[in-house]
Amino acid sequence: MPRPIDPTLRRARRLQIIDAGLTAFARHGYAGATTAQICRIAGVGSGTFFHHFPTKNALLVAILELGAEETRDFFASQDQATPPREVLLGYVDHAVADLTDPRAASFITMVGGLTSNADIRAALQADEGTTRSRVRDVVTAAQRQRQIRADMTPDRLTVWIMLLIDGFASRVAGGDFDAGAEAPLLREQVELLLDGPPAPDLTP
After folding, report:
1. Which GO molecular function terms does the record list (predicted)?
2. CA distance 125 to 128
3. Contact at 8 Å (CB) between 38 and 59?
């Protein structure tokens, strides 16, 4: 009788391969990264690799899907007592933390060149949809509680929050941009966006 599979161990091994794939893709690009290289970095055999991922393409999709999963986990883990405005700013910090990974620039550039791949495009769209949905829900709650500006619709304000984060990510991908050092300025810009223009001075 075969031994039961430990789901915790299975997930740990899967994440181990995903992390190795991220390293290999960042170093060698999609075409240059081989399953043999990924296996060496992960410290696993090819049989283990193909047990989890039938193709290199499936591994790349899994990396992108993990990003969406981490976004869902971030919002799901927030204490209900935390003000929605602080949740939004916390998400900005969460997003920037990923961009401080030294592999981020090369990986973002590589993925940007693969949008003609239907699987990759679908994974990117799903990731964006997850982020948009979660951020919009928190924006709506923050507006309802009068914690942020209310002169923009939740959809429009969500688009602008994502635009600031995506623009920051694009600069990281462009190189010569220290995500960790510049993160406080991104947070400041998001705070200014959430506050809206200052009230006019009506002092006579």
Report:
1. DNA-binding transcription factor activity; transcription cis-regulatory region binding
2. 5
3. yes
Number of H helices, E strands in the chain: 9, 0
Q: In the chain, what is the greatest distance between 2 CA atoms, to the nearest angstrom?
A: 87
- Cβ-defined contacts of 66-74 (< 8 Å, 24+): 66/15, 66/18, 67/98, 67/127, 68/123, 68/126, 68/127, 68/130, 68/131, 70/98, 71/127, 71/130, 71/131, 71/134, 72/130, 72/134, 74/134
Residues in the chain: 204
Task: Measure the CA–CA gap between 144 and 200, rounded to whole angstroms.
Answer: 23
SS3 call for 149: coil
User: How far is residue 196's CA from residue 72's CA, in Å, rounded to a whole number?
Assistant: 27
Indicate whether 201 belongs to any domain: no
How many domains are contained in the chain? 2
Q: Are residues 37 and 83 in the same domain?
A: no
Domain end residue (candidates: 54, 76, 93): 54
User: What percent of the chain has a predicted confidence (pLDDT) above 90?
Assistant: 89
Q: pLDDT tens for residues 76-100?
A: 999 999 999 999 999 999 999 999 9
Q: What is the span of the domain harbouring residue 143?
A: 60-195
CATH number of 11's domain: 1.10.10.60
The tally of CA atoms less than 13 A away on the side-chain side of residue 175 is 2
